[in-house]
Amino acid sequence: MDFRKGGTVVNRFARWIVKHRVAVVIICLLMLIPSVLGMNATKVKYDLLYYLPEDLDTVKGQNILMEEFGKGAFSLCITEGMSETDQQALEDAIRDVPHVDTVIGYASITKGTIPSEILPDEYRNIFEKGDARLMAVFFDDTSSAEGTMEAIAQIRKIAGQQCFVSGLSAVVTDTKQLVEDQEAIYVAIAVALCCVVLMLTMDSFLLPLIFLFCIGVSILWNMGSNYLMGEISYITKAVAAVLQLAVTLDYSIFLWHSYKEQKTLCSDRDDAMAAAIGQTFSSIVGSSLTTVAGFVAICFMSFTLGRDLGIVMSKGVILGVLGTVILLPCVIRLLDRALEKTSHKPLLPSVAGISKFVTKHYKVLFVVLIVLCIPAFYGYNNVGKYYDMSACLPQELESVKANTKLSETFDVSTNHLVLVDADVPQKDVVAMTDEMAEVDGVKQVLSIDSLLGAGIPESIVPDEILSELKSDEYQLMLISSEYIISSDAVNRQIDELNEILKKYDEGGMLIGEAPCTKDLISCTDHDFEVVSLISIIAIFLIIALVLRSISLPVILVAVIETAIAANLCIPYYTNVTLPFVAPILISTIQLGSTVDYAILMTTRYLQNRRAGSDKREAVSKAVASSAQSILVSGIGFFAATFGVGLYSNVDIISSMCSLMARGALCSVLVVLFLLPAVLLVLDKVIIHTTLKVNAKN
Question: Which of 542, 597, 538 is nearest to 564 (CA)?
Fold first, then answer.
């Protein structure tokens, strides 16, 4: 491919595309068949803890639990107002549910063989409070496995209104149902709002439908190709389509504007479209590089949800580029006459006054930027985050109600599992459980050895209970905690429990949702630093190569980082707590997706300086020529994400979409008003650190 000689390969490709437009459209549409099949066959993970690194003890422990005991997930079920006979019948019925491995409750332990009077009070209190009873249900697969979720649904059906199913497995089940019910609505809202915005800002009522059709095809290609990944997270599935629409909409606008320009220069429309493809190809590819770089950076998260979203969105951007240069030109040419009949004057207000304003007040605006940085970056670095996924769900969900019931009735907010070597002497296990029971916030500790240590003969404990809690290699213990997941209190408790555990068994493992979440906090805090650094370095290098400058990458990255800080500091000053993944993902996505606005304006500024304009004139012309494109692009990005953020009642999805929408506006405002001021103030530095700019004024 020789771009120096006019990009002949690209031009030949463009001419071929335009000439065979009917065949190209048919092929693109036929590709939807395997795409839809692949999309429907792609598995979805709803348990975010699944994405923790494999080398963590908590993850290793979960694997051992599965291998040694055949147990993956577990839930605590609370019943109310049941007789002992009905309780026993319910436990037996739940035990018969497919994918239920074990049921441990008061009725299971006594089973008519252990007189209630010899059962210690602490054990009776584990399972009984007033007319409420508790049972632990273990499943034979992971929290997000289809079998586990089907089992949860069946347990709810069997138990009726008298039973509340709590725990991560129940949360995952409700999350799946909620997200699946809303996914189609997310896309519909994004499409509808984008359509309205484009109809107002573009010059044809039909054009937005063509844009959205072609982008929709590339989204389906991307969703279908996810089958090759095996499975994706529910967050990726929920936001990928909306996000791909938002970040690739620009490319369609670029091609259309280029085609309109070429029609005035070429007598033949096929030649005009081929020229538009050739002209747009390099700019679209260049524009997409920063976006892809941002998503690739996310792949370096140790919390592999980032890799999941990063791969899907990198594919989405690349396929969006292909859809723009292959499918869109063909559809436009096929519907050229219809586009002319539906043309109208764009309703976007004039932006001519912006260039005059920024050049006149650039010193004040520069000071505003400096002052803005202080509170923005302070709030950005101190924004509150939460890690408990049940906190992001509507309170009326059954799993949320069950967790509340567990806390209110039994004063239990979470449960830890302990894996202890089977060779640890019984007296040591009893001593260890006694110490653990004294740790702040621990309500009960349940183990076979501590039960036997209380004077109950092993011979009268049901065999199924012994076998379920003890294997050849390990014994299993259950610790109930009154502290909520991800709180400082429960994290201190986990540290104390681990210290006690290691004293008696160096290889022992403390596992469960709370210990996994504690590891999640450590992982994501580290990931935030790593991902931010990688994305900044990658985009810095891309800008340096594109603009052939040393200073401009620093300036443009700093400007967009200020916009990111302005976006993410708002939750801090409004006392809003964000889901833990939001700051990591949003900071990288906003940088990669909106730095193009700054590159566009800066490119125009450099062109003007190279043409001999003084700095004021160069900046003024740059703002005037790029403001409308930046504004349309930013509004389109906002439209694609704002509605979803407003509608969704899953906070992790709502927060991410709302932040992306606001981030687009922040970047637009910073680029239109503050970047020109920076270019004017630092003009001399830019001139002396950028190639082929020999400005004399």
Answer: 597
Cα separation of 137 and 94, whole Å?
8
Distance CA 140, CA 22 (A): 53
Q: How many residues does the chain have?
A: 697
Burial of residue 484 (CB within 10 Å: 0-12, 13-18, 19+) is middle
Query: Which of 98-107, 316-325, 605-614 is modeled with the greatest confidence?
Result: 316-325
Give the pLDDT confidence score for residue 697 in this predicted structure. 59
3-state secondary structure of 241: helix
Same fold, 1-30+202-341 and 348-388+528-697: yes
- pLDDT higher than threshold 60 for residue 460: no
Which of 425-429, 568-572, 575-579, 642-646 has the lowest average pLDDT? Answer: 425-429
All structural domains of the chain with their residue ranges: 1-30+202-341, 348-388+528-697
**pTM for the structure as a whole:** 0.84
Q: Are 139 and 103 in contact (CB under 8 A)?
A: no
Would the pLDDT of 696 be above 60?
no
What class does CATH assign to 1-30+202-341? Answer: mainly alpha
Give SS3 for 72: coil
Strand 43-45 to strand 231-233: parallel, antiparallel, or no bridges (unpaired)? parallel
Give me the half-sphere count of Cα atoms (radius 13 Å) on the Cβ side of residue 19. Answer: 6
Helices (H), 128-233: 146-159, 168-201, 207-225
| Segment 646-675, tens digit of pLDDT | 998 888 899 999 999 999 999 999 999 999
Instruction: Please tell me what DSSP assigns to residue 326.
Output: I
The overall longest dimension of the chain from CA atoms, in Å, is 99
Query: Does domain 348-388+528-697 correspond to CATH entry 1.20.1640.10?
Result: yes
Which distant-in-sequence residues (6+ apart) come within 8 Å of 114 by Cβ?
456, 460, 461
